[in-house]
Each structure stands twice: as C-alpha cells, then as structure tokens.
C-alpha cells in the first residue's frame, strides 16, 4: 500500500498514521527508535524478528513520516521524524 500524503486532506493523513500505528510490531519499532537512531540490523536484533519483516514495517512508517532514514556508510539509520512521534506512543 502506497500512501502519498502531501496532497491529501488532514483526515486522510490522520487515518494513514492510525493505520501505521495499528500494528504492534510498528509500535515496537517506534519504541526502539525512541532511544535513538538504529539500523535495521539493530532493530532486528532487539525485536528478534526477521530483517525482511522489519524492513517492510519501516517502509510503512516512512510513508507516513513517522520515521526518517539516513545513509551512514553501508548502513541506513532510522530515527523518529520528530519528538511528537513519542507523544503518539
């Protein structure tokens, strides 16, 4: 599911964010990222889930701008988009 948030009205954005937060693994990922930036490998290790599964959930979180990604060398580090994301948890 691809969600393009820029042209949509606020109710659509709110629904997309609610959908992203509706899965327990995504909430677990956000909880890990509250502690600071982490790579997919870091998150995978902390949650004990397959890397492909974590990557899929991170993609959903990125689509609704709950997390940001930045390349650091050979890795991609993920972090919360803003402190307001912590308030959602």
Task: Summarize it.
With 89 residues, the protein is of the alpha+beta class. The chain has five helices and three strands.
Description of the molecule:
The protein has 89 residues and is α+β, with helices and mostly antiparallel strands. Helices cover 55% and strands 16% of the residues. The protein has five helices and three strands; from the N terminus they run H-H-E-H-H-E-E-H. The two termini are 23 Å apart. The mean pLDDT is 88.
Task: Detail the topology: elements first, then pairings.
Blueprint: H1 10-21, H2 24-34, E1 38-39, H3 40-47, H4 51-63, E2 67-72, E3 75-80, H5 84-88
Antiparallel strand pairs: 1-3, 2-3
Strand content: 15-25%
Class of secondary structure makeup: alpha+beta
Large-scale geometry: globular
Which consecutive residue ranges, at least 5 long each, have pLDDT under 50?
Answer: none
Quickly count the helices.
5
Terminal CA distance: 23 Å
Task: Tell me the helix content.
Answer: 55-70%
Trace the largest sheet across and list its strands: 1-3-2
Average predicted confidence as pLDDT: 88
Radius of gyration: 13 Å
The sequence of SSEs as H and E is: HHEHHEEH
């Amino acid at each position: 599911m691809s969600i393009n948030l820029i042209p949509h009205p606020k109710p659509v954005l709110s629904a997309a964010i609610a959908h992203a937060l509706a899965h327990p693994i995504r909430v677990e990922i956000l909880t890990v990222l509250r502690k600071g930036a982490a790579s997919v490998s870091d998150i995978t290790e902390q949650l004990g889930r397959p890397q492909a599964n974590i990557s899929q959930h991170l993609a959903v979180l990125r689509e609704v701008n709950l997390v940001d990604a930045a390349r650091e060398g050979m890795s991609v580090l993920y972090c919360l988009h803003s402190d307001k994301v912590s308030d959602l948890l």
